[in-house]
Amino acid sequence: MSIVDHLSNSTANLFSSVTVDRAPEYRLSNEELSVLADSTNARFLPVLGSQVLVSSSTTGYAVAALTRSIFDAEFHPAGPMIYLGRFNGGHHFAIDIEPASSAHTAGHLFGDLRQFAPLLPDADCALLGYTRAMVHWQRTHRHCGRCGTLNEARNGGHVMRCTAKDCFRQQFPRTDPAIIVLVENGTRALFGRQAQWPKARYSTIAGFVEPGESAEQAVVREVSEETGVEVVTITYHSSQPWPFPGTLMLGYHAKAGDTGIRLNDHELDEAKWLSRAEIEAQMRDGTFVPPTPTSISFRLIETWFDQNAATPLRVLRKTYSELET
């Protein structure tokens, strides 16, 4: 039995390409966190709505990790600080800010992380993805899910606890598991597209894991529901945190027992089987556009495609696809 390096596979996925030392020991003491937040190596990452702050210079874009003095001068907090951990020698905090706040400091701008992702260093993407996911979770859990009382942030913002003395229910950061799978049969792979996607965009099959099923069972169910294709074998590839707003994508390769397509749940507008040669031809004439390289979907396709292709998928995409930002 061969051993697959799943850690390396997953680390190659965007948003999981760096390991932040989350230093959970610091979360236990509000006093210690206050000292860290006031220290010279504290850095603050503001989130405005769903937008993150980046810095722009002649050399490109990077995460805008602000000192305490700059943050206090420019922004108004809309929620408690969230301790992210140690990164590049600094203690990093995420914080939700008021809509009236704006980045007046030269070279800073707010934007959609999806749009900035191809322009940022991988490590910065991972840190900003962590930041965005935590702020969204905290923002959507301000009240107790049991009694409706206001929650308070504890453990460095990683726990939201009900303030009602007869409740004290604790809520923890939520991650929703979803499967994403490249299904193959012989020399062809299965692709689908939704009506609202950009013109000619195709991707792999994906869907959320439902209660009472394993991730592998979700693969079988989702492929069947969306395309009518029967999956007979499944192999794990890698995972990717997807901070829009808080999903863990579990990536698989699968083999199909049949190739008949039936769009059972009408979630897809179209599904089709394509060989490597057909993909290259359709990329050339603009009728097939793969997912962006920021997604695990692209990597699933790439792993399969590059096994027996004369030209790597990334080279083809750069040659034939429009640059996406």
How would you explain this protein's 3D organization?
- The protein has 325 residues and is of the alpha+beta class.
- The chain folds into 2 domains: 20-140, Nucleoside Triphosphate Pyrophosphohydrolase (Alpha-Beta Complex); 176-320, Nucleoside Triphosphate Pyrophosphohydrolase, CATH 3.90.79.
- It contains 9 helices and 15 strands.
- It has helices spanning 6-11, 30-37, 68-74, 113-116, 122-139, 215-227, 276-285, 296-305, 313-320; strands at 42-48, 51-57, 60-63, 82-87, 90-96, 108-111, 151-154, 159-162, 170-171, 176-185, 188-193, 205-208, 231-242, 247-256, 270-275.
- The strands form 3 sheets. Strands 1, 2, 3, 4, 5 and 6 form a 6-stranded mixed beta sheet that branches. Strands 10, 11, 12, 13, 14 and 15 form a 6-stranded mixed beta sheet that branches. It has a 3-stranded antiparallel beta sheet with strand order 7-8-9, with no helix packed on it.
- Helix 7 runs parallel beside helix 9.
- The longest helix is centred in the middle third of the chain and has 18 residues, at 122-139.
- The protein is globular, with a radius of gyration of 22 Å.
- The two termini are 41 Å apart.
Sum this structure up briefly.
The protein is built from nine helices and 15 strands. The chain is of the alpha+beta class and 325 residues long.
Main features:
Nucleoside Triphosphate Pyrophosphohydrolase; 15 strands; 325 residues; globular; six-stranded mixed sheet; single chain; 2 domains; alpha+beta; 26% helix
